[in-house]
Amino acid sequence: MALRMWASSTANALRLSSSSKTYLSPSFSLSRCFSTVLDGLKYASSHEWVKHEGSVATVGITDHAQDHLGEVVFVDLPESGGSVSQGKSFGAVESVKATSDINSPISGEIVEVNPQLKESPGLINSSPYEGGWMIKVKPSNPAELDSLLGPKEYTKFCEEEDAAH
Amino acid sequence: MRGGLWQLGQSITRRLAQADKKAVGRRFFSAESELKKTVLYDFHVAHGGKMVPFAGWSMPIQYKDSIMDSTVNCRQNGGLFDVSHMCGLSLKGKDSIPFLETLVVADVAGLAPGTGTLTVFTNEKGGAIDDSVITKVTDDHIYLVVNAGCRDKDLAHIEEHMKAFKAKGGDVSWYIHDERSLLALQGPLAAPVLQHLTKDDLSKLYFGEFRILDINGARCFLTRTGYTGEDGFEISVPSENALDLAKAILEKSEGKVRLTGLGARDSLRLEAGLCLYGNDMEQHTTPVEAGLTWAIGKRRRAEGGFLGAEVILKQLEEGPAIRRVGFFSSGPPARSHSEIQNEEGKNIGEVTSGGFSPCLKKNIAMGYVKSGSHKAGTKVKIIVRGKAYDGVVTKMPFVPTKYYKPT
Questions:
Q1: Inter-chain CB proximity B45 and A22 less than 8 Å
Q2: Average per-residue pLDDT in chain A?
Q3: pLDDT the model gives residue A165
Q4: Which residues of A50-88 are buried (b: 16+ CB within 10 A; e: fewer)?
């Protein structure tokens, strides 16, 4: 939720700017408007992704989210063995700008937590879909995945969010 | 809601994000349209500025550079900030000094002409109404800059006291410099770059000093001061010349001085241990508690004669109950309102500003603790999201200041 709000706030700031054509210089608009969205993943509107493979689902935050947050300096993650619920916060990301809650896109038991993030929180920026994964969950209700956004829907959602505010 | 600089920028959005979606667009639009713009607004947008609401103004929180890069670049090269939202005003008249001394803690009479100082406007209880950099231009002209967010209440406060002062025959009037813009040029390249744009010898202008001079062909008020801990200047320029001056500064630096937004400004001032009014100092905070005892002139300590002097002089004698201190901490960065505990887990205070230091690459914070727990090296616990993290009271500034002083 908090993550979503921050994203919308940046979007608000950006909307203000979008009236100017000069604003759309390539280096900036590329990183913002064309954030990478991967096929094969499911996305929550609060900007987390989930990759379901076999009995385990891996969770992280999207490229779009990390781009809006800026440099991540600390990641607060739960212990393995705990449980998460869809739409509920399970941790927090601290960037130079702000603190943002991370919500779980799916319910279940946490079976693994990314040990790298403690020492290298910047992996969230450099590799949001690979090295920057956060937790692995054994889903208690895999049907929840159906309620999430697909890659195309999520891309559209981000564009609308950036434009609408 | 209190919060860091950038959070202030967000607060409108946060509130609106909780309302229903249709209403959001409409209400946000009206809120946006009421925001004031500086003359550099289009320039900010053209340079990729992310504009956010701040103290009633639409201001750039950052540009294309990240806040981290922007902060580091200001200390390595230089940063140019549009701070035109701040309010510059002049007090004129032969009684300007005695008048101002009824409202602030500084020894204004004791300042040499052309020099200035940081001071605090106090209320009857000794609390801070605002902090301000004041300059004695001449014996009958004081120039000062107050915070944008405090403008209305500061002006009302000054006006009320000015009326009473004039009614008793005092000679003082004010002039608000709304036709001027304010740029801050900070960092090691500030002086060499600005020297390209003026014939005056800037090597003779030291920290805290003021001069009226031509810069890039415009009559400017130049103060060697800032809010970053670096050497640098605040330049009050006629608004019609502000855009040309900003462009000239960037051009003369060959791209090394970068446009720098409010986000990096907040990191820089925190690293320099400087208070943000509204976070680290409020109506109920005295200058003594805030660690600004040095700003209370010696003569003022003996004579008093400013609002709340009884409270402040008593605190000077007995010591304040709480004090502003700095911290290093482990774990997530402490933010404003994080609880501070002693090693036994007892509450001893609260963080007022905190974040990750881009230059030191670790967490820094400032806050108020009970006297006795304020000494550098005192171990504390800082509570973030219910968990206690180790912290230690640390001397400020966190990053050494580099003010240009006579050697």
A1: yes
A2: 82
A3: 55
A4: bbbeeeebbbbbbbbbbbbbbbbbbbbbbeeeeebebbe
- In which residue ranges of chain B is pLDDT below 50? 1-30
Contact between B43 and B246 (Cβ < 8 Å): yes
- CA atoms of B286 and B371, how far apart (whole Å): 14
Give residue-wise pLDDT tens across range B135-191.
999 999 999 999 999 999 999 999 999 999 999 999 999 999 999 999 999 999 999
Query: E strands, B239-287, where?
Result: 257-259
- Contact in structure between B228 and B268 (CB atoms under 8 Å): yes
Do B88 and B38 form a contact (C-beta atoms < 8 A)? no
Q: How many whole angstroms separate alpha carbon B165 and alpha carbon A64?
A: 58
Residue B169, burial from CB neighbour count under 10 angstroms (0-12, 13-18, 19+): exposed
For B400, what's the count of Cα atoms within 13 Å in the CB-facing half-sphere? 2
- Chain B segment 22-81 residues within 8 A of A by beta carbon are 24-25, 28, 32, 42, 45-46, 48-52, 58, 61, 64, 66-68
B232 bridge partner residues: B186
Q: How far is A53 from chain B (nearest CA, A)?
A: 32
What number is the ipTM of this complex? 0.78
> Could you tell me whether strands B232-238 and B218-223 are parallel, antiparallel, or unpaired per DSSP bridges?
antiparallel
Q: What is the CB neighbour count within 10 angstroms for residue A164? A: 14
Cβ contacts of B13 on chain A, cutoff 8 Å: 5, 8-9, 12, 165
